[in-house]
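Bench notes, afternoon.
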Amino acid sequence: MNIQIIAIPKIEERRGNLSVIENDTVPFDIKRVYYLYDVPSGAERGGHAHKNLQQFLVALSGSFDVVLNDGKEEKIVTLNKPYEGLLINSGIWRELQNFSSGSVCLVVASEVYIEDDYIRDFDQFKNYSTRK
């Protein structure tokens, strides 16, 4: 599956830790950054794939699961460390679930929002993934 856990550089000192995401951390130019928070218990986010966009997800606080599907296999990755991120390349279906209380999900994206880049129906995604 075309995903990867990437370590985010961490500077540790007794006053607290500092991590930095720059263009050499992710394999794409950063065009958009947003974050999810106050996700109600039992709610899910995501539920789509992208044709071109790449994303890098980080659990800044708390934890959540990322359910990934490339059309052939499914994998669940739990994110719970603010110094690690999950690179999701294009053509991967993703669902975010099991958000802990107070969790914050940072999303760093390779493109600005373009609705035509989204595949929001899983059956359409399966057809798309078999054509690639």
